Fold these 2 entries.
Entry 1:
Amino acid sequence: MRYAMAIDTKKCVGCSDCVIACQTENNVPIGYCRDWIVEVTDGTYPQLEMEIRSERCNHCDNSPCVRCCPTGASHIVEGGIVLVTPNECIGCGACIASCPYDARYPHPDGHVDKCTFCVHRVEKGQQPACVGVCPTNCLYFGDLDDPKSEVSEILKTRKYKTLIPQAGTEPQLYFLI
Amino acid sequence: MREEIITSGRMNPKIDPYLNIWHWEIPIYLFLGGLAAGILFFAAFYTINGKEKDFPTAIEKTPLIVPFLLVIGLISLFLDLHHKLYFWRLYTTIRLESPMSWGAWVLMIVTPLSFIWAAIHLKKVFPSFKWPFPWLDIIEEFFIKYKKVIAWAMIISSLILGMYTGILLSAFNARPLWNTSILGPLFLVSGLSTGAAMNILFAKTHLEKKTFSTIDLALIGVELFLIVHLFMGLLASTQVQIDAASLFLGGSYTAAFWVLVVLMGMVIPAILEILELWKFKIPLFVPALLVIFGGILLRFIITFAGQTSRWLY
Amino acid sequence: MANRRQFLKLSTIGIGGMTVGLGACKYIDDFTEIKNNPDELTINLTRTPTYCEVCFWKCAGWVYKTKDGHIWKIIGNDEDQHSNGRFCPRGTGGVGMYYDEDRLKTPLIRTGKRGEFKFREASWDEALDLVAENMKKISAEHGAECIALLTHGSGGKFFGDTLKAFGSTNIAAPSYAQCRGPREVAFTNTFGEGIGSPERTDIRDTKCLVLIGSHLGENMHNGQVQEMSAAIDKGATIITVDPRFSVAAGKSKYWLPIKPATDLALLLAWIHVIIYEEWYDKRYVEKYTFGFDYLKEHVRTMTPEWAYGKTTIQPDIIRKTAKEMANASPAVIIHPGRHVTWYGDDTQRLRAVAILNALLGSWGRRGGFYAPSKLSVPSYPHPEFPKPARTWRDAFPGKYNLADETLASGVCDATIPSIDRSCNFKMWIVNGTNLINTLPDTAKTLEAIDALDFIVVVDTMPMEIVSYADVVLPECTYLERYDAIRVSPHRKPAIALRMPAVEPKYNTKPAWWIAKQLAEKLGLGHFVPYDNIEEMLNWQLKEVGSSLEEMQKIGVKTYEREWDDLYFTENEDVEFFTNTGKIELYSSSFVEQGFDAMPNYTEHPQPPEGFYRLNYGRAPMHTFSRTANNANLTDLMEENVLWVNPKVASLWNLENAQPVWLINQDGIVSSFPIKVRITERIRWDSVYMVHGFGHAQKQLTRCYGKGASDTQLISNVMEDPIMGGTGMRGNFVSFLTEKPEEAIL
């Protein structure tokens, strides 16, 4: 099993619903977030192009954060989801520095926090909160090992990219372009 | 023009607009680790070579400060932790891929060694010193008997410690400035250099002063070579490494690095040491202090600049 | 969590001996179990239905609570056509309204001057007695019609009924004359029906969506954004006309970066091309429309070349985009927009939009405009409301006859004493609308407030308008109350229930309770003959085959359409509710009222040297100023910024994030500075900011002084003579890089 997410940048309007849905679902304290919106505009008026991306932890196959964690608090579970066990985390910040996507942050309680792909929902067969709420339906989540999953299907038909593949992290967020 | 912004209000000062997770604690920790490694290395080196008579400062006196250095370093590291009550988690596992874990465990070895080393030399430095309990004398005697063994353990672990202070940073692929294997040797050499400088400061005899001054000169030469190499490597690499190098080549850290670290912390002390070798009267504590000062700044600047270097999306 | 995984993760064997105190660790491990595990929160959850009050879209959803009774999250109701189970960020963040510690907490009676925010706390009885006393007094001296209700939100229904029972029908919402009014009038006078809310646009199935200054995606009208996304999935062509590179423009096949204030020229040129290239739906036009020949003659000279000189849009682009629309016809939508009060000729501009849709045959067709259906839910039986002697229209003899709702700005005008009028408004009841930041020309609003004998404000938050109130009545948030059943038009008729998820915080009360108490104090209790709202709702729900109990379980009930279809059937004979019974390309009622039967282009002023047109809009995470203090939403966006083209920025030496004050053409300076955002996404002759910021009310601790208020800078209002809309896009601003003396900070 290999969970992954595809984000359709052609549909995303950057409304940030994924961000706030995650915050309420996971009790992320105000002032912090596990996912965020990046807006990139290229060109000169009026020759312009825009890409909007809903970003979060890439749940990398080759995760530098898990490698550099001195206590094993950062670990990988079934489906390739990268998690942090709060009461094993010492808050040294190494994993935060190791992440080329800046997807981790120190939780005010001290431990490091990040996107969990809403593993508590996924385990019950639900979608992550961000995917479930997205008004533009631009997020697709599922098992890449299952060729019939929504995410596998969309990746078969659409062009996509990953972020900083040259960092060698083998990220599992696929941005449809 | 390209405009790339986060529009969902993410403004977490620890990661935005660039990484800002490590402040003074980590560079101090890295500096003290390197300095301790340098001092212990020389103490062990001359012990193994049987030069106890010639190098009393390096073997007996200077190592007395190492336990303090390491304790302060560990306190710094502890202060850096955000989840302090869980620090003991470091010692419930060994993670070979994690430099932090390496560091924790190396310190776990080096720190007791440094305490033992200091303890068995206390009486030499302070002749009037007496252990309060007789059984401590027995233990001391036991360690003195195996001093060479301890020295061997110390020389190996100090080299690992010195190297580790650089590797801690260089293991981060995400920060292109750090992600160069030069950083390990550079920090090791810098650590040895500051260790030598510390010995110069404490040395009483001309032999010790001259020897460490010469050693320091050689180490500064190696450091300068490594720094040139560092930039050659970065500039010959991809755009992100070039961007990282440009932090020091016209970027915001240029003056601090070249003036304070390279000029004040390396070139000027080297010149002074050369002049001293040429029989000019130079008070050697000047280059020694400059080297130590440069060593501290090197850690600070590399730690801070590295946090601002990042991958391009 | 720890027991799910191997406790120790030794990478190598044999070093195990070095690890210390395993037993102790395990003990501490259990002892220090971290509590924010979402798994735990899902135990013993209760959920209650609601419909959202953060904006007017009113999506239905569920409020989830934790086992200790705290509101945890709000999730869309899958059955709901407005949200399809997906709330927008504001709805998801609606919980912040409930938790806001700046909320109005208890009834207040003014002790200082109006505007000072000096109050004493009062009991509900005392506050309502004072309101009733003043209402009676004003009624005796001037007539009950001199009381107006200005409202935006669900509570308006209850206050409106009390006011009607008292003898006044002057109930206005700024959402009409300050927002969507022109389009309703334009479409009603073309197709015989308005657009309504939610819009009847069949975006889901359209092949071509044309947005004119409408920034769907940034204005998060949930259902429409969802449908636009679905249309993108299906490969629909989007054409966006906007001087700003909006998010929608970024999704468009064609973005037409039009010179501001010239949209009507473009629309007329499109009409010209579609008629003269014979790309219009001939059978449809022949069968259903009136006045085609007049129109054809009218637009004869309005060629793309003519429009190019005005709009700066290349003629071939105008033709190409017209062809795109024609190719998609009838599954094409020239979107009427929502906030359309721009330049004072807005009704005529929207007429052009309506005409274009008519020519392409999209009205009543799949992928165009569908016929919405609304359930008829009877009111709880009550005596007939008295007929008022006068209405707001009497204050404007001969004017605004085509306006089909009360003008909030008209009420404001008719409050200021004038020799032309025999009487003016003496009392306002303001419910859920912050008129200071809603009505343009703040100075006039304040003059009107100054002239009032009495003003009551019902709100949840200490908005600017609250500080002018004589009596403040703190309403509880939508999460703490019942409201009227949501009955809104959609593809299928449906109803939705809002019920309290939690008890009202502080000493706040639901609107229905406040309005009922007030009615009773006015001796009008027989108009609200139910004991509590549950009784009323249950009666109404039983009338439509449901019950309160059922609705509490399901939240939303969808019915089948009873008589008509979503779209016209092939060759169906349709009677339109216009004078001619046809779609009026030539408007007979406009002629009757002395207006142009067909739209004509008029030049609007362009910014003078050193000034830039002030454009304003929406952000998806805020609803005007209503959400500006919501902690969950300020977390996403805490202030507005001023979009400035890089060319302009370099001319003025502006840097990103530099705070600037704005001064408008009338010398009005923004109270607060706004940070510059240098971006190519804005034309060099305009600046742009999101509406709803720059709050000057200190009691709004989170948003006080954050960003600038566009409303404050809108002092030039271009009135639409047809229906009284307040055109607000003819204001020009310049930058002040130094703090001016007048500023509040």
Note: DSSP finds six helices and ten strands in chain A.
Entry 2:
Amino acid sequence: MKRGDVLRWVLIVTVTLYFAVPMLAMARFAFQVVPVALLTPDRIFEGWSVSGLVDALGEPAFHEAAKTSLLLAVFAGILNLSLLLPLAIAIELRAQHLKGLLTTITLLPWVIPPIALVVGVAATFRSIAPWFLASPYSLVPFYALWAMPFTYRALDAGLRSINAKTLYEAGRSLGASSRTILWRVLMPNLGASLIAASVLTGALVLGEYAFASLLLKNTLPTYLEVYQGGEPRAGMALALAVMLLTALMLWIVVRIMRRRGLDVSAAAGAV
Amino acid sequence: MRSGPLAGLPFLAFIGLFLVYPTAVVVWRSATPDGALGTAALERAISTTYRSSFINSVQLSLASAVIGALVGLLLALAIYGLERPRWLRPALEAWSAVASQLGGVPLAFAFVAAIGTQGIATKLLTEIGFNPIDHGLGVSGFWGLVTVYLYFQIPLMFLVVMPAVAGLRQTWREASRILGAGPVRYWRSIGLPILLPSFIGGVLLLFVNAFSAYATAYVLSPSTQIVPLQIRFLLQGNVITGEEDLAYALVTWTIVLLLATVVIMSLFNRRAALWSRG
């Protein structure tokens, strides 16, 4: 091996270790029924058990929080798509010069992060519409908003890859109406992008903490934080499960995007 | 589609109501403490304790952005030059897309398990004679937070910079070699100038990403003096009149800082797009 190759592999192995160690440590904390102080390297095979996870999943409060988060993810996904999809299609077909503007608007959630926006929300809606903030589902519009930079990228990449404009013009010259083209040509072809965008929104919602915590809503992340304080081992197991679920969802997005030959970096949302 | 312009209306109304309106109210109130135009709140938000929160936040974000960007870039370069194993690059890209979004509460717990006081890695290192906590490397300190943030910063940088690295054509290297340039000259005159806009754009994106991160820092050490945690403290701690204006002012400064960063970032990204390959 050349010296360059050695350096290359040293870097790759180091980074891999850095990514793997916290997960493995978490697995030991979560699934070894051994006092934490005794989790030393020589006891690595002692007392493995999934009882922590079973306990965590059996909590009624967990069901409540998980249900809220799941519904938030579904509603935010629907809202997000119903706002962005018509716009993305209209701009791709009719007004490509507005693309830059839309990209700029979808960058706004980076400029106004949740911790900043939540202050504005408390300052405005709390006095003019207190009933609105009382419900946990008041988070839906803000989660839809927060997901936009990511989902817009997935939708835009999808529209470009199917050559939506060409399909539209071909359909028109063959005598189809706009509505027919939309429902029978564009939508079936966009299926993968739509699923990718929805799953991505879901993964983001499952992890969002700042908004839920400051508006005192009981979602999965806020529940997890409180629960782990009282039940360290079971809480760790639940955290690991949530993390794996999020990772699985994002991995599905990557698979879908790849199968369509799209760039996976849509998950980065900002470039 | 005749409804073209109409398709934008619900979207704009939505953005207006849920993003622009609350933000505008906060900015306006920060500039009108006690109901009259004045800079008292805005000035207080960058003096004494609050100034140090901004300094801490900037230092934390900058450290994690620069280190994350360097490691991410080196990783991209390492992977790009590697032909085998062939699965490595797609696997790393997929992992990066996943890990760049893995922030928040579970990640904080993972690092408590790894490098907390009772952490697995802490014990391992203590056994070989180096207790990281004794050297100021606890998970809730400055470098601890940087270590945790890198978990999502490195993958984000890898995703952002990979297209630029993939844009370095093999033919350029061959052409420069034929023209008599060594590797040093090649990197100085061609490689680095091409990668630089992407790199700087990446650093700025990572900076914004770290500056607005909240959950991880809150779970690991809620008393850290950084801007997002100060905002929380002012909003939830006590509802004394005047303190709210201070929270609004902190938010205004945060938005000003992030806006400036994002504007500069998009200038660099435009430049970077010239040679990129997805």
Note: Residues 1-49 of chain A form one domain.
